[in-house]
Every structure is written in C-alpha cells, then in structure tokens.
C-alpha cells in the first residue's frame, strides 16, 4: 500500500545515506527482522548488542516508508489520557504503561547519544491545551492522575498561558520528559550503527514465507533464501490486514514544514504543542528554525492522491499556526499526506503470535509510534532471550 504522498521534508535534511545490497544468497540466522522503518531499526539496534546473528530485510529502501513522513514528536502522553486508560485498563496497568512510555523516551535518548551522526534529538516539554472551556474539567482530571503518580506536570490557567505565549487558551498541562528528533536521520544512523555491530541489512528485497519446521521459519526472495529461528515483523501500516483482526485501523493525516523564520521561534523553550480536540492539531520546531505542524486527520484508509488536496490541507495547517502566532512571517515549504495506524484501545501490538512463538510483531500503532517501537524492541528482546517480560501482557496480540 502507498504510505505517503507529497513533498517530504526529512529526506532533504540528510544525505549521508548508506546503501545496502539485495539479498542474493542462502543463509541462516537467529532473528530475521522484516521491515526497515523505525520499529525495525530499533529492534536491530537492540539485538545488535547480543551475540546472535540478526538479519534485517526491507522491500524498498530503509526509512522510506511511514517513517519518512513521521513528524518526530516523542511524547509519553498518549492520544488516550492517563485517566482514560485507568478507566479502561485499571489503575495499575494504565500507570505502568505510561511509565513505560516515559522510560522509552529516556532510552531513545541513550541510543541517540551513542550514534556518531547527530540526529537532532532534543528534550522538550509539552504544552497540552484545552481546545475549549468544556475541556477544562478533562484536563484537571488528567492533571490529578499524572500528579498522583509522580509525573512531572504543571497546570496552567488562562492567565499563565497568556504570560508566556502569544495566544490564549482556557487551560493547559505542561509536562516534562518528552523530546523531538529527526526521524529520518535517526533511522539511518541507527541502522548504520547496527550494521557496524554485525547486523546484516538487505534492501530492495521482497520476502515470502516458505514454510517452517520445528527449528526454523523459511523465507524466499527473488534471488535468496533465509532460514530464521525467530522472525520479527516490523512492517508498520503495511500490516493492516493482520492488524485489523486485532482491532487496528488505518486513517490519514497531513503535515507541513514551514519556511525558516528570520529568527528562531520564540515560544516557551520551543515545547511541543498539542490540544484536547480530536482529531488534534500539533506543532514543533526544527533545528533550522522551521515549524512542523500536523493534524486534520480523516477516516480514510488511503493517502491523498492529488497534490491539490495536499496543498489545500497544507494551507489550512499554516493558518492554524498563524492563529497561534500571527506575527510569524512564514509560508509552507513542504507539505505531505500520510496514512497512520491506530488501535481501538490505544495500545500498540507487540509480542509473539499465540499460535506460533517463532513469530513476533512490533507494530507501534498510534500517535506515539516511535515510543511504542522502543518499548517493543526491548520487550521482544526479553521474550526471545528469556520467554518473559513483566509488561508484555499489556500489549500482547491477543489481549
């Protein structure tokens, strides 16, 4: 399926791209990773620390799928608020999941610091504002839940927001512990590092399952074959036929990157900004002084096919920015539309198939895909090595 359309920003920011060969050999490995996006890259990096043979295969080029359209916000807070998760999952499991997300941002920073290539990873606060007066009680309830469980959060009223921003909103939460990254640089640098540590990487290789026995799963491509003891499918939104059975769905979204501002954007410490309305609008800044904004999600399971549609929605996003910052002299420089996956319960799909413990899925469906992928990489490593992980039951495929 087509994952994005339009003029992407991130590929223009990074030219030091490693090329990997097609698979044209017969080989055996301990773990095969299918998919070279963010999930696959993080799984490869995590497994590269272990004395096991790992192979990653991508049917196009690494980082060219949904990850190239990723806007690079790394937040522990989810599309579902903590208090909403508590109502659905119970307090213990909901808090445990939010703590996992916060820890994953820390782990992403550790990986970014290990890389030789800078990936523009910066820790940021997040401003989560009430889109209307009616949403204030919901924000207050979320503040109480976060505060109770020792998350670093402040409640801002209308006057406090007005002091430090050029816009007015009824109320907001200011949370600590989030981050931003250039996802395209991040993926390529992670995989280059994993390759140097011994992970074999193949591009332009479309694999098909070719049977199994007690020890191996077998795969074939046009010119090669792989026998793998374990396989991790990190195929993102291309896994939607499988994910639909689990409660997944595909929608589409829009994003822009503006022209650089003459001076760097000056909102409070360049925090990440998003809102309570659904679908929500969000903004962040970039290293070169642009604003990336996204939203205007639609319940359509294919990318917008016409440039006219993408440009129209790009102008709408630009107007949303200017509603917040009317003095900014900016235009749309890049605009794109992309598909994204969501689960019914707001959780990712991570873990082994119940009927086949050789097969794992790492599907970071939801607004926090990179954070979920970090959780998945660590979790699947534990499941492969030790057959257990204390948090795996929260995101298991058959939940």
UniProtKB/TrEMBL annotation:
Record's Pfam families? Answer: DAO
Q: What residues does the FAD dependent oxidoreductase domain cover?
A: 30-383
Organism phylogeny: Bacteria, Bacillati, Bacillota, Bacilli, Bacillales
InterPro entries (alphabetical): FAD-dep_OxRdtase (IPR006076), FAD/NAD-bd_sf (IPR036188)
Known SUPFAM superfamilies for this protein? FAD/NAD(P)-binding domain
What name does UniProt use for this protein? FAD-binding oxidoreductase
């Amino acid at each position: 399926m087509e994952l994005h359309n339009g003029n992407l920003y991130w590929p223009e920011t990074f030219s030091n791209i490693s090329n990997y060969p097609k698979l044209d050999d017969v080989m055996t490995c301990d773990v095969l990773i299918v998919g070279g996006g963010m999930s696959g890259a993080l799984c490869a990096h995590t497994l590269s620390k272990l004395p096991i043979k790992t192979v990653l295969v991508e049917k196009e080029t690494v980082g060219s799928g949904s990850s190239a359209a990723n806007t690079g916000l790394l937040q522990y807070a989810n599309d579902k608020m903590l208090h909403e998760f508590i109502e659905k999952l119970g307090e213990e499991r909901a808090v445990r999941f939010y703590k996992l997300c916060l820890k994953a941002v820390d782990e992403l920073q550790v990986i970014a610091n290990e890389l030789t290539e800078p990936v523009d990873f910066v820790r940021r606060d997040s401003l989560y504002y009430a889109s209307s007066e009616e949403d204030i009680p919901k924000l207050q309830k979320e503040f109480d839940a976060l505060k109770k469980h020792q998350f670093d959060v402040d409640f801002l009223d209308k006057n406090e927001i007005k002091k430090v921003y050029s816009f007015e909103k009824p109320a907001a939460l200011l949370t600590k512990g989030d981050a931003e990254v250039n996802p395209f640089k991040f993926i390529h640098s992670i995989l280059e590092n994993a390759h140097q540590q011994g992970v074999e990487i193949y591009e332009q290789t479309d694999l098909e399952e070719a049977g199994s026995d007690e020890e191996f799963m077998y795969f074939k491509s046009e010119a090669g074959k792989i026998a793998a003891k374990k396989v991790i499918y990190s195929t993102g939104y291309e896994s939607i036929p499988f994910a639909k059975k689990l409660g997944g769905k595909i929608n589409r979204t829009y994003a822009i990157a503006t022209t650089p501002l003459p001076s760097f954007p000056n909102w409070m410490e360049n925090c990440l900004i998003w809102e309570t309305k659904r679908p929500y609008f969000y903004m962040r800044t970039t290293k070169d002084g642009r604003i990336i904004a996204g939203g205007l999600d639609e319940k359509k399971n294919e990318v917008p096919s016409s440039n006219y549609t993408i440009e129209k929605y790009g102008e709408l996003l630009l107007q949303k920015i200017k509603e917040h910052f009317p003095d900014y002299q900016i235009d749309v420089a890049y605009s794109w539309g992309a598909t994204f996956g969501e689960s019914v319960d707001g959780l990712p799909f991570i873990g082994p198939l119940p009927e086949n413990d050789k097969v794992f899925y790492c599907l970071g469906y939801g607004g926090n895909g990179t954070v979920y992928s970090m959780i998945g990489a660590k979790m699947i490593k534990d499941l492969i090595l030790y057959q257990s992980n204390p948090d795996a039951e929260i995101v298991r495929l058959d939940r």
